[in-house]
Amino acid sequence: MAENLAWIKFFVGDWRRDPKVSMLSAAGRGAWLEMILTMHDLSDCKVQGTVREIARMCHLDSSEIQSALQELYRLGVADISWCDDPVTGEAIVTVVSRRLEREQKTRSDARERQKKYRQKKQSQENNNEVTSDSDSDSDSDSDSDRKDVKAYKPKVSEIEAIYAAYPRRVKPTEAKKRIESALISLRKEHGDENFAYLLDRTRKFADSPAGKRGEFTPHPSSWYNQGRYMDDPNEWYRVDSEQKKPNQQQQQQTTRPRGRTYLG
Hints:
This protein is mostly helical. A hairpin with a 6-residue loop joins strand 2 (79-84) and strand 3. The chain starts with 11 loop residues before the first helix and ends in a 13-residue tail after the last helix. It is built from twelve helices and three strands. It has helices at 12-17, 19-23, 26-41, 51-57, 62-75, 98-134, 139-151, 156-165, 172-190, 194-207, 220-225, 247-251; strands at residues 46-49, 79-84, 91-96. A three-stranded antiparallel beta sheet has the order 1-3-2.
């Protein structure tokens, strides 16, 4: 279950350009939007229940929901499935937004990466403390290493070089603070090679499809703060399924630019 966000991403261009959403009737589009907002209130990527229950959740009539479900299923706007309630025998409908499902997984993966990073960092700190207590000869070395990390401050030129290599340059003040923190953190593991390591990872990301998504590329402050530079580079080359459309479908959209399928 995702966290209850106080806001929702709504890309107007994606909504208007989505060919499947455009084929919905005005009532169908309104009902689909109400379902999306209900999913947001539930902090989930789906709504589930009988037609009457979903109608109540979405503040609509049962007939409006029934008609909208038929349109959504026929046009493939959402994933819809039915099953019978074992007690009442009524049909239970499950409506899933594929896009909300993807965004929910992205947030979950990001939290998991941060959790693993914190655990790794805590484990390293604990190992340093154990070594310090058990070996007096290495005590001075550990103290020296900690003092070196504590006294280390990245050069302004290094921070500027990494920021310049990132493909999207927005919120520079916050971004450079995060880059500085990343360099300090990497110093413990990579020593003097921390700058070269972070610059190399940044350049590889900039050259990947994930780094060339324009406004959809993460802000640098978020990317460095979340430790995304430690991701498997293969993840940066994954292409969303909606980008792999047949050429025939692309040729049919000559009057308007192709947008991503909205919440479908």
